[in-house]
Amino acid sequence: MRRPPPARRAALCLLAVSGLASALSACATTYDTTLASEQASTSTSSTLPNGSAADLLPRLQHEAEGLSALMMAGKDAEDSAQRIQELWDAVKAEVNTKRPDLLSDFSLNVGRCAHAVQFSRAADADKAARNIGVLVAAYLGN
Known about the structure:
Blueprint lengths: L5 H20 L7 H10 L10 H21 L3 H22 L1 H19 L3 H19 L2
Helix pairs in contact: 3-4, 3-6, 4-5, 5-6
């Protein structure tokens, strides 16, 4: 019996992996209600910053630029990542209205900031900060 050519083997492997991923994503999720009640008692509410995108995007950029330094110093980078997310949430609708072409890139890089903090990857925070700087400049027309 002959083996299939490498391209066909790769295609079959890819098909098997995607089928497995689909099967796993269809699994039911169970929730532990005791965890939900404990988490609800410790949650805090936050208020989104006020201002226009022209005011808040430079603040978001500044916060992103300092994120990797906080991470390397071992300081509380989670708070900074949260502020970045809150600033983005406050201006997202305005950016979507005025420059919808930038929306997905902003969202991706704000998410990259949170991911960098979660996995202690300061280089990813630097990359996100550079990208956010370019996006802010594009939005503000600088």
